[in-house]
Amino acid sequence: MIQLREANIQDAPLIALLARITFSETFGHYFRDANDLESYYQRTFSVTKLKSSLAKNHNVFWLAYLDELPVGYAKLKLDSPSPFLDTVKVCQLQKIYVLKDFLARKVGVELQNTMLERAQSEGFEQIWLSVLKENLRAIRFYEKNGFKVLGDHDFSIGKEDFEFQVMAKELA
């Protein structure tokens, strides 16, 4: 059975570990230089960085457990405007990461639904996200759940350049 709970600052080490593993499982093969990947981990998924992120009122994290085993996490950023949206009351689905071995167990759906419920309860009109264009599994997941493509943007990590799609969903 899937259990979700809102994360707190003491969960930073667990989120850091899940973040590194799930990011590597999903995107690690795109990196030609392991140093670029390690540098990204230090900037983005260090325990210190995650403690700082968890302490901010506009960031909400959840942890997902399956049979008491931590298998994924999600992050919702409240009040997060996008240049692709004119809506004032907008938030961002920043991360849904689930360990590869548990993807088929619908953990991502549970995390997404929890984030959507929170966003709606706080009065947000739209939620947006950014997804790697090559991550067809994620794109299909979001499309199936009512997200529409709004446009594209680029993002670089070290020597690697990535193309992303911005997607959004009406909440009201």
Describe the structure.
With 172 residues, the chain is an alpha+beta fold. It has helices spanning 12-27, 34-44, 47-55, 107-121, 136-144, and strands at residues 2-6, 59-66, 69-77, 90-98, 126-132, 148-157, 160-170. It has a 7-stranded mixed beta sheet, with helices on both faces. A hairpin with a 2-residue loop joins strand 6 (148-157) and strand 7 (160-170). Helix 1 crosses helix 3. The longest helix has 16 residues, at 12-27. It is globular and about 40 Å long.
Overall pLDDT score: 94
Provide a count of the helices. 5
* Topology as a string of helices (H) and strands (E): EHHHEEEHEHEE
Q: Order of strands in the sheet with the most strands?
A: 1-2-3-4-5-7-6
Strand pairing plus helix content: what structural class? Answer: alpha+beta
The description of the largest β-sheet is:
7 strands, mixed
Strand residue content = 25-35%
Q: Rg, please?
A: 15 Å
Basic shape? globular
Helical residue percent band: 25-40%
Distance between the termini: 30 Å
The low-confidence runs, each spanning 5 or more residues with pLDDT under 50, are none
Could you tell me the number of beta strands? 7
